[in-house]
Design goal:
By secondary structure, the chain is an all-alpha fold. The protein has helices at 2-16, 24-54, 62-73, 102-105. It comes from Devosia algicola.
Length: 106
């Protein structure tokens, strides 16, 4: 009797248990979802690796360094063309018809 009960339990587990035949579809859906997440994370990792290689001392581009330094210091070169943008609309400001306040210049 105990043997028949144990065999029934095994049969039930093989069909509808956590790793049974009926759970196979759920596992396949989870595998596809996790594969998509893995691909997205791998793309993010590759992006970070690319950015890290740009910081390598052997591969630093002087133009990128100059651009970043100017942006951090809020400085411009005499030959630069500067376009002021309204932060609320994102559209360029027209300097011919309005006087810019100190706040707009920052």
């Amino acid at each position: 009797m105990a043997l028949l009960g144990f065999m029934g339990y095994l049969a039930f587990s093989a069909i509808s248990g956590q790793y049974g035949i009926e759970s196979r579809e759920d596992m396949l859906v989870d595998i596809k979802r996790l594969s998509g997440q893995s691909a997205a994370l791998q793309a993010e990792i590759d992006s970070y690796r690319h950015r890290a290689t740009l910081l390598n001392a052997d591969r630093l581009d002087p133009d990128i360094i100059t651009e970043k330094a100017r942006a951090l210091l809020n400085m411009a070169d005499a030959n630069d063309v500067i376009i002021l943008v309204d932060p609320t609309t994102g559209k360029p400001l027209s300097s011919s018809s309005q006087i810019l306040s100190e706040n707009q210049l920052n």
